[in-house]
Structure formats: structure tokens, C-alpha cells
Amino acid sequence: AQALIFGLLLRDEHPFLRDKVSLLEEELGNEAMQLALKWHKELRGLHSARKIALVELTLPTLRGLSSLEYERFRDAIEKLISSDEQVDLFEFMIQRMIERNLSSYFDRKAFLKIIRFRKFDRLLPEANVLVATVAVTGASCPEDAAAAFAAATSDWESSPLCEGVSSHDELDHILDKFDQASPLVKRQVLVACVTAAARDGRLSSREAELLRAIADSIGCPLPPFPVELIEEDI
């Protein structure tokens, strides 16, 4: 299970792939590195929705680690991700999945936050930016992005389409606010994001990554991605 996660983080398009492989060998040894490379080769080119499903399957096994084993596993992931001093969307998603599904388990901490936002209107500016981010991520042209944004925000008074978040820090800030919202507010914004992503009848890998990152960050269940939306993605 650990090797599968490491293998997913070793991607061909990454400019620092060789450095990450060396780091993995240094941290966990040659056997673990070779197993991660085996998974990397088998899973390359797979749509991110399918990668997410595989990560989901590893979670029960990973919860069986000892506290020391989990700490070592988490440290290795953090070092792999931070080794190039930047975090891409896939890595951001993996971090959120680990934090929401494993860290709370091993740290014996529940995600019980005070609800600060019970009305959707109080987070309307943030909702517009979040949905715009999803719309822009999956669009092939500005017109498609505008159509996806309009369809997703038809239930509320939206602002003109913006370019979405400019950094992961900004995304973090918005998601932290929604994490402090009521379940109904969380569901409303997540449904809008899914609507924006599915507007063109297909789901790109980046859209799948973003949707999963959003869902895990705010603690709102995300239904499995329909096969018909992802089967044509390359």
C-alpha cells in the first residue's frame, strides 16, 4: 500500500523525477524504491480518477500501520512532495487525502470544528472563486469555462467569471473557511463544483484531482466518478 502511494508520486512528467527516486531510496532503502518504481511503471498514464480509487483501496491497510510506521510513511511523503519546493495539484490532493483519512486516525483527533458559517451567502465570494477554479481547470476555451461556471452557479447570485485561485495558499484559505461551514453549505458548494466539472460531459485528471482535494479538505463525501465521464481521458 505504501509503495503504491510512493509510485503515484513518481511521475514521468515531473522534472525532478530522478531526484525523487534517489530521495526515496535514501529514506526507505533500495527494495522500497524498486517496488515504488514498479507501481509507477504500471500506473503511468492512468486517469487520476482511477488513481484516486486505488488510493481509497489502500486506506484500510494503511490504518493497520503502527504509529512509528505511519510517522515514517508520512515523513517520506512530505519529503517527496517538498523536495522540489513546489506542490502540484496531484500532490496537493494526496496531502489532503492523507490528512483527512489517516492523520486524524493516527493522531486520535476528530475533525470537530466550530461551525462559523451556516448560511451560504456568507461564503458567496469564496464559492464563486472555488467554482470558477473548477470551471477554468476543465475548460478548453474561455467560452467553455464561462458556460460551466454559469451552469454551476445558477442557484445563487454569482459574480462574473474570474480566473480562480492563483495559488495553493489561496485555495487553502478558501477551503479552510468551507471546512468551518455547516454540512448543507459544504454540500451546496461541492455539488456546484461537480456540476462545473461535468458540464462538458467528461472529467479530466486535473478536475478529478481538484474535486477530491476539495471534498477531503472540507470533509464532505464525494460520490465515485461515473465511468462514462473518465473513459475517454488520456
What is the fold's blueprint, element by element?
Layout: H1 2-9, H2 17-28, H3 30-43, H4 48-62, H5 67-82, H6 89-106, H7 124-138, H8 142-152, H9 168-179, H10 183-198, H11 205-218, H12 227-230
Helix pairs in contact: 1-3, 1-4, 1-5, 2-3, 2-5, 5-6, 6-11, 7-8, 7-10, 8-10, 10-11
Estimated helix fraction: 55-70%
Q: How much strand content do the residues show?
A: under 5%
Helix vs. strand class: mainly alpha
Mean pLDDT: 87
Which residues sit in consecutive blocks of at least 5 with pLDDT less than 50?
none
Q: What is the tally of helical segments? A: 12
How far the N terminus sits from the C terminus, by CA atoms, comes to 25 Å
Largest sheet: none
The geometry reads as globular
The succession of helices and strands, N to C, reads HHHHHHHHHHHH
How large, in whole angstroms, is the Cα Rg?
Answer: 18 Å
DSSP strand tally: 0
Task: Write structural notes for this entry.
There is one protein chain. By secondary structure, this protein is mostly helical. 66% of the residues lie in helices and 0% in strands. The longest helix has 18 residues, at 89-106. 36% of the residues are buried. The model has no long low-confidence stretch (mean pLDDT 87).
